[in-house]
Specification:
alpha/beta; Alkaline Phosphatase, subunit A; 8-stranded mixed β-sheet; 4-stranded antiparallel β-sheet; 10 helices; 16 strands
Length: 463
């Protein structure tokens, strides 16, 4: 059990006024659902078989998607874990970090006070984090301290080995069996993140006859410049193998919920923090050093299931990672805080829930995980606009500082000239987004006062 003491609440994340936020739909008749959020680190949407991939990589996720919602055009707001996770849990495009990398200054504890687990705790949920990523170490991640229960699964693994979803479930399943009230559990697993060692189980997709020149499962810096098509395909096959193993663990999770009689009243969300390049442009990996924000790094899966409570549907409209937290709060019957910027993707319809078409967006903003000024891409359905943005000093829309570019998507990826009407459309969308990002970052004093009072009652804040 973890409780935070001596915290001071920070006015940090407000982006939208309460007046501009639509009311959260009321929970339909019945008990509050439990919620499990599974994040598969570096998981690409296009490698799911339900997304049309030529291999049967994800049969369990496919069945889950067939019984719920499959979002085919879902985008992370970043290409790295620190920003991606912070956006996901805070529902803000430029959030204060909730986790950090080893060697970096740890974020302030108060950054996590307005994250999704704290809001759900205020609404009567027991919360738990089962972290397979080393960035979730308590010294690095203030978000660990707003969960009622925290397990650092990564620390249980030998050095150099990943904590995959099966390892996370080893810790989660005993906790799950002991729960008797609505809970929110966040499971973060590393299956689809480098390195990709060949596992002991008989491979489904990997050709064992290949003898790569690099260390098996090498991280990107060791295998980034492979010239051999056979070796590049080998790395891609290893990725598919790890995704298949993660999917096997998803099936195990579904089975555990079914055996416990919890499946029908549990919202199960499977997504990612970002994607991964696999040599499509000569590189394998993700993050700030790449800078061109390709879809392979930002197009991520989103599958939402809720037993028989959710009308199954495949959604092809554009959605964003910041939409996940408000949608979870809506399903939990909780009010959505004014600082959250995402849309609600799900609405009640009689005794069931369904996808809300108003939740889709005309474009998805993606921020490169690098230093200020940050590289930004606006991903439209048929084009992608690039520019730069600075929190400290706004960057001009035109000229060298903005590093502007507009390219078409899906029809040859050609460069669109500045005098094309689509360029004006993209610039106008960026102006609207810039205006939103320029608003003061802070909830109202009254909202912060209520939040501080509620969290003090829950034991998260003292004084």
């Amino acid at each position: 059990m973890r409780r935070a003491q001596g915290w001071v609440c920070l006015a940090a994340m407000g982006m939208l006024s309460a007046a501009s936020r639509p009311e959260s739909p009321a929970r339909v008749a019945g008990a509050k659902p439990s919620v499990i959020l599974v994040v598969l680190d570096a998981c690409r949407a296009d490698r799911l078989s339900s997304m049309g991939y030529f291999r049967q990589t994800t049969p369990n996720l496919d069945r889950l998607a067939a019984s719920g919602l499959l979002f085919t055009q879902h985008y992370s707001g970043s290409n790295g874990t620190i920003t991606g996770v912070s956006q996901l849990l805070s529902s803000t495009l430029r959030p204060l970090p909730l986790i950090s990398a080893p060697g970096a200054p740890p974020p302030p504890d108060e950054n996590a006070l307005t994250a999704l687990p704290a809001v759900l705790a205020d609404n009567g949920y027991r919360t738990a984090l089962f972290a397979g990523h080393p960035y979730f170490h308590p010294r690095l991640a203030p978000v660990t301290r707003v969960f009622d229960f925290y397990s650092n699964v990564a620390s249980l693994k030998p050095e150099g080995q990943k904590a995959n979803l099966a390892d996370v479930l080893d810790q989660f399943e005993p906790w799950l069996a002991a729960q008797h009230t609505p809970f929110f559990a966040y499971l973060h697993a590393m299956d689809t993140h480098f390195p990709h060692p060949l596992r002991a189980r008989a491979p489904v997709f990997v050709d064992r006859r290949v003898r790569p020149s690099f260390a098996n499962g090498a991280p990107p810096e060791q295998a980034a410049n492979l010239g051999s098509p056979i070796e590049r395909q080998y790395v891609s096959d290893l990725y598919d193998e790890d995704l298949h193993e993660a999917d096997r663990a998803v099936g195990r999770l579904i089975g555990a919920l079914s055996r416990l009689g919890r499946l029908e009243n549990t919202v199960l969300v499977v997504t990612a923090d970002h994607g991964e390049q696999l040599y499509e442009a000569g590189y394998a990996g993700h993050g700030g050093g790449i800078g061109n924000l390709p879809d392979t790094e930002t197009h991520i899966p989103l599958v939402v299931s809720f037993g028989g409570e959710l009308r199954p549907q495949r959604i092809d409209g554009m959605t964003r990672s910041i939409d996940v937290a408000p949608s979870i709060l809506a399903l939990a019957g909780a009010s959505i805080p004014a600082w959250m910027m995402g849309n609600v993707l799900i609405r009640p319809n009689g005794s069931r829930w369904e996808f809300d078409p108003q939740g889709t967006s005309p474009f998805a903003p993606v921020f490169n995980q690098d230093r200020d000024p940050v590289r930004v891409a606006l991903r439209f359905p048929r084009m992608k606009y690039f520019t730069r943005w600075s929190a400290a000093q706004p960057v001009a829309l035109t000229g060298p500082a903005a590093d502007e570019a507009l390219v078409s998507v899906g029809d040859g990826d050609g460069v669109i000239p500045v005098d094309d009407p689509r360029f004006a459309e993209a610039r106008q969308a960026w102006r609207r987004l810039t205006a939103m990002l320029s608003r003061p970052v802070g909830a109202t004093d009254e909202a912060l006062k209520r939040l501080r009072k509620r969290l003090r009652t829950l034991g998260y804040v003292s004084g």
